[in-house]
Amino acid sequence: MSPRQKYRLRSRSDREVIREVEPGKHYVDGESGEPFAVVGKLIPLAPSPSSLPYAVENLRLCGCSLEQLVQRDLNDCPHCDRRLPALEG
Ligand SMILES: [Zn+2]
Description:
mainly beta, 89 residues
């Protein structure tokens, strides 16, 4: 089990890190000194039995003829640029 939620942090110069964050704490890019802003939650959402973003349970078919597996949290298929249907449930 991986009960800690991971977040995607981005600095002004678009450097990104993935890490767990503590509420109220500020994170700074060690290289540029720029503050990181939280830009997203990483799937799988905690708690999850898997901490792998590309684990099978976090992928779905994009629905086009290419039948590519894409990450569930994407809005558009990275292979064919089609809009992905809203997730159910
Ligand atoms: Zn597609």
